[in-house]
C-alpha cells in the first residue's frame, strides 16, 4: 500500500525546511525586481540567514518515506519559501548535476559533483524535439580533444553555473543515436555566456544563452566516459533522457510548493476577512469564495499526490516514465489555475506588489514549459498508455 504519511522525524525535517523557506521569502521580492543583478546573498544585509540549518544538515538521512519521496517533500517546501532564492542556497545543484549523477562515471562524479552544473539542450531551432539539435562535437584524434560548436538558449542558472552538461551531436544524420553529453567548465576558451534573458517569472533564477566556438575540451569530458562514444544505437541519448524521469516530478514539485504558498496566503486573508472555510458545511451553505478556495485546495492535493506517486515508484525501483509525465502535465495546468484562482478570490490583494501572490502566479507559468511542455508530456503519456511508437504519434 502506498503511504505518504510522515513520521515525527520526517515532519520535523520539513518544518526546518519551512523555517528556511520563510528566510528565503525575505529575499524573494529583491531577486524578482533585480533579475539582472548578481549581488550574491552574502552581500545582502541578512546574509547570515543563508547558512544551512545545522538541524537539517544533521538529519538528512534515514527517511521513512523513501529518498525520492522525501526529496519531493523537500523541494515542495523549499519552493513554498521561494523558488528562485532556494537555488541560491548552498549545496543546491542544477539540472546538469542530475545528469552527471544519472549518466557520469564514478571518476566524473568525483571530479564535478561539487560544482553547480547547468544543462544546455535547447537551441534556436530545437526545443521539444532534441533529436534535431545541431550543436556539434568533433573528435580531434591528434590532440585527443573534442571540438564543440553551436548555440544554446534558455540555460537555467547559466550565468551562475560553474559549468554545463552540453548536448551535442557527433553525426546529425544519425538523429538521437548521434547525441552525446559533454561536461564543459566556465573559463574554457571558446565558451561564451552571450546573453541573460529577461523573463515573466522566476526572475531570481538567471537564464542564459551560451555560444561555443571551436571550444576544445579533453576527450574524457564526454559524460559516461569514452566507451560511450563507441555505443551503437541511442544508448547515450536514452541515458541522458532518463535524467528527466526524476527531474520532471521535481519540476512539478516546484509548482506544487509555489501553489501551496499561494493557498496558505489566501486562506489567511480569507480568515482575516471572516470567511468561514467550513469543510463540513453542506451543499449551498458555503460562500462563493470558500467554495472556490476549497476546490483549489483539492486540485492542489490531487496534483501533489501524482508527484509523490512518481517518486514512490522510483523508490520501489519501478519504471516511472509515464507517471513522471502525468505529474508534470497535471501540475503545469493545476498550479496556474490555483495561483490565478487565488488572485480571483483576493482581487487587489492578489495583484499588489506588497504581497508575493502576483509573483507566485508569474513564477508558476514556467512549470508547463521547461523540461518538456504540457503538450509533450501528453504525447509521452499517450504513447505509453496505448503503446504507440514515436513514429505512430509525434
Ligand atoms: C525560463 C526557461 C528556462 C529554461 N531552461 C532550460 C535549460 O536549463 N536547459 C535547456 O536545454 N532548455 C531550457 N529551456 C527551454 C525549454 O525546455 C524549451 O523552451 C521547451 O522544451 C520548449 O521548446 P521550444 O521553446 O523550442 O518550443 P517548441 O518545441 O518550438 O514548441 C512550441 C510549441 O509547440 C508545441 N509542440 C511542439 N512539438 C509538439 C508536438 N509534437 N505535438 C504537440 N505540440 C507540440 C509545444 O508544446 C509548444 O507549445 C528553458 C526555457 C525557459 C522558458
Structure description:
This protein is an alpha+beta fold. It has 13 helices and 7 strands. The strands form 2 sheets. Strands 2-3-7-6 form a 4-stranded antiparallel beta sheet, with no helix packed on it. A hairpin with a 4-residue loop joins strand 2 (136-140) and strand 3 (145-156). Helix 1 (8-33) runs parallel beside helix 3 (67-81). The radius of gyration is 22 Å and the shape is globular. The two termini are 35 Å apart. The relative contact order is 0.11. Bound molecules: flavin-adenine dinucleotide. Flavin-adenine dinucleotide (FAD) is lined by residues 95, 118-122, 127-128, 154-156, 199, 207, 366, 369-371, 373, 375-376, 379, 394. Flavin-adenine dinucleotide binds next to strand 1, strand 3 and helix 13.
Amino acid at each position: 500500500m502506498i503511504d505518504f504519511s510522515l513520521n515525527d522525524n520526517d515532519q520535523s525535517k520539513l518544518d526546518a525546511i519551512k523555517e528556511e523557506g520563510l528566510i528565503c521569502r525575505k529575499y524573494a521580492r529583491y531577486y524578482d525586481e533585480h533579475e539582472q543583478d548578481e549581488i550574491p546573498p552574502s552581500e545582502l544585509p541578512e546574509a547570515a540567514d543563508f547558512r544551512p540549518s545545522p538541524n537539517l544538515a544533521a538529519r538528512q538521512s534515514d527517511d521513512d518515506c523513501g529518498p525520492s519521496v522525501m526529496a519531493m517533500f523537500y523541494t515542495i517546501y523549499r519552493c513554498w519559501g521561494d523558488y528562485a532564492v532556494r537555488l541560491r542556497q548552498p549545496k543546491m545543484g542544477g539540472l546538469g548535476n542530475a545528469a552527471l549523477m544519472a549518466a557520469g562515471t564514478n571518476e566524473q562524479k568525483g571530479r564535478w559533483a561539487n560544482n553547480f552544473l547547468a544543462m544546455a539542450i535547447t537551441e534556436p531551432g530545437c526545443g521539444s524535439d532534441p533529436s534535431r539539435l545541431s550543436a556539434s562535437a568533433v573528435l580531434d584524434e591528434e590532440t585527443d580533444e573534442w571540438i564543440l560548436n553551436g548555440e544554446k538558449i534558455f540555460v537555467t542558472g547559466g550565468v551562475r553555473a560553474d559549468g554545463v552538461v552540453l548536448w551535442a551531436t557527433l553525426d546529425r544524420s544519425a538523429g538521437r543515436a548521434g547525441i552525446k553529453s559533454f561536461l564543459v567548465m566556465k573559463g574554457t576558451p571558446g565558451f561564451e555566456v552571450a546573453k541573460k534573458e529577461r523573463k515573466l517569472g522566476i526572475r531570481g533564477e538567471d537564464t542564459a544563452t551560451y555560444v561555443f566556438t571551436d571550444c576544445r575540451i579533453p576527450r574524457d569530458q564526454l559524460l559516461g566516459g569514452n566507451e560511450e562514444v563507441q555505443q551503437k544505437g541511442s544508448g547515450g541519448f536514452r541515458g541522458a533522457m532518463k535524467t528527466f524521469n526524476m527531474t520532471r516530478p521535481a519540476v512539478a514539485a516546484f509548482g506544487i510548493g509555489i501553489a501551496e504558498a499561494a493557498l496558505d496566503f489566501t486562506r489567511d486573508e480569507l480568515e482575516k476577512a471572516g470567511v468561514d472555510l467550513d469543510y463540513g458545511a453542506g451543499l449551498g451553505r458555503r460562500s462563493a469564495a470558500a467554495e472556490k478556495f476549497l476546490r483549489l485546495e483539492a486540485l492542489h492535493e490531487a496534483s501533489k499526490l501524482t508527484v509523490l506517486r512518481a517518486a514512490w515508484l522510483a523508490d520501489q525501483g519501478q519504471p516511472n516514465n509515464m507517471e513522471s509525465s502525468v505529474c508534470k502535465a497535471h501540475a503545469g495546468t493545476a498550479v496556474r489555475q490555483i495561483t490565478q484562482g487565488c488572485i480571483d478570490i483576493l482581487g487587489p490583494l492578489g495583484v499588489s506588489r506588497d504581497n508575493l501572490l502576483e509573483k507566485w502566479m508569474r513564477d508558476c507559468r514556467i512549470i508547463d514549459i521547461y523540461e518538456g511542455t504540457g503538450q509533450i508530456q501528453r504525447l509521452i503519456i499517450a504513447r505509453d498508455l496505448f503503446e504507440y511508437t514515436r513514429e505512430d504519434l509525434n
